[in-house]
Automatic annotation (TrEMBL):
Coiled coil: none annotated. It comes from Paraburkholderia megapolitana. Catalyzes the last two steps in the biosynthesis of 5-methylaminomethyl-2-thiouridine (mnm(5)s(2)U) at the wobble position (U34) in tRNA. Catalyzes the FAD-dependent demodification of cmnm(5)s(2)U34 to nm(5)s(2)U34, followed by the transfer of a methyl group from S-adenosyl-L-methionine to nm(5)s(2)U34, to form mnm(5)s(2)U34. One of its GO terms (molecular function) is tRNA (5-methylaminomethyl-2-thiouridylate)(34)-methyltransferase activity. Its EC number is 2.1.1.61, 1.5.-.-. GO terms for cellular component: cytoplasm. This is tRNA 5-methylaminomethyl-2-thiouridine biosynthesis bifunctional protein MnmC. Pfam families: DAO (PF01266), Methyltransf_30 (PF05430). Residues 1-236 are annotated as: tRNA (mnm(5)s(2)U34)-methyltransferase.
Amino acid sequence: MTHPLIPATLAFRDNGTPFSPRHDDIYHSAVGGLAQAEYVFLHGNGLPERWQGRRIFTVLETGFGMGINFLATWAAWRADPARCERLHFVSTEKYPFTEADLRAAYAATVAETSIVELAQTLAEAWPTLVPGVHRLEFEGGRVTLTLAFGDALETLPSLWLRADAFYLDGFSPAKNPELWTPPIFKMLARLAGDDATFATYTSAGDVKRALTQTGFEYRKVDGFGWKRAMLVGRFAPRWRVRRHEPPVPLAVNARHAVVIGTGLAGCAAIERLAARGWQITSLERHADIARETSGNPAGVFHPQLSRDDSGTSRITRAGFAYALQRWIALEHAGHDFARSTQGLLQLAADDAELQAMTDAFTAFAWPRDFVAPLSRDEAQRIAKVPLAHGGWFYPHGGWLDPAALCAAQCAAAGTQLERRFGVEVARIERSGDQWTVIDTSGRAIISAPVVIVANAHEAARIAGLQHAATQRVRGQLTLLPRGSIVAPHVPVIGAGYAVPLVDGTTLSGATYHVDDMDASVRSADHLENLERLAEMMPSLDPALRTQNPSTFAGRVAFRCVALDRLPMIGQLADETAATLDAERLRGAWPLDLPRADGLYGAFAYGSRGLVWAALGAELIASQIEGEPWPIERDLAEAIDPARFLLRALRQSTIR
């Protein structure tokens, strides 16, 4: 069950030092936050020297607080000409500041020129205060901040990364003892890379004993400011006790990937890999990008909330937040694509559902800039049309042109992308450390160490997967011409949806017919869309519903949907090896499964491609590069393409 996220309370001591009334402790030394960060955490971990010449360096911090340690690390990275190529900073925080309080704290305490600008940039990117993992990117993605909002006892086990340095910076052990216990240090040890270092301002005996018990060596050094001593050290266990080693980059002889499919899934993967310096060859059977479901005139984007904050809700919440970041970054880089910015309204089925969801929003303490429940009158004032029921409003939801987004993502890849159209892929084969793509004539067309199958219905077949439970779902859209209805001011979804487009037309739909392969536009489906529209908007002109439906424009597309309605994202399993070792793997965890080196999937996005695609691409890129994952491990396992294989192994249906 998700616990409500409680924001920190901003307060100051008489000398101007920020402190926490909840813990009755200061956020940093009165001598100076930046100086403390540099002395204790940077120098205590041998930085910046230890990251020099490295491609990736990862810091894991306990207790983000005001973010001064992150700002100091970012500033040191900026100032170092020999800096690592990519800096990852991962931090946990149970009581994060609101954006307004974070800005106020910086205004009152941050005067050092080296971090004033960085503090402003961080405040502008500060996420909405909802639980879970939030990925923020700076310096064109070369500095990444991954924030895990929630209790460290719950968030630390959910992270998957290889830490090179630890900043142990919760409030003092006397004030915040739960952050300094052996279970916390055991979780850190699970994530420690070889020769990972740590630093902390404390030298308490309980902390030293907990460090020693979990494989860390420590030594006392002079403390900062008025503190006489602090601890520094490294991870040096006398024996290995980990079931799984933390992730490492995929070993490749060339940073070249083939992406099969150029819809939302494929184009997002192209952009995320190109941002990391990869060369990409895209293969597409059509003559242009986004010709299947991603070619619809518009798609809506919003999280899918539930009364119990289910796994699907958590994944869509993370995907929604990350997608918005990526789209804003593309726009700031000059890439244009049409999307609305006025919010999206979801209608309840009835008053009982509205009350139940309102109660859930209150229990979870969702901020109103994330979602706000509305009465029917309030909803009608936003939509500017009569509605059947109230609902809830997503201020950052809306609609977007998927094909234009795909084009922007490909454009962002620039010369790192080679495009090949009219390519019908039949299968892929492994030879040594390369994957070879073979077309339907039996010709080998390209080889690369990494292949991402992102072509919906064909992905499982091309990858040779036997355990990928997906189905085709036919969906038909209806385009209502300008003036045929009074269009809502914002997208309205419920039994169906009504999306007001920039040309004055209204997009309505979509039907949902499983294993229906008819590609023609059908009058009956137009009527079905209109009936759903009338359920949401009772003022719909009766004459429109009696109009000959064959006069309406429409479009048919086929969604690829997994049986559990979740996408298939991540490294694919080696199903042959798993079958041969089925008896041993009967009780396996996802990390136990043999994997196909260099082979990844991004498909079965159903009707939520706009929410899944960016996060899915970032997860795959992180798996390839050995970077911290952008979502919790249990959520990544929920969308793992190997999950159906894992179920078959557990049920002993594989022999």
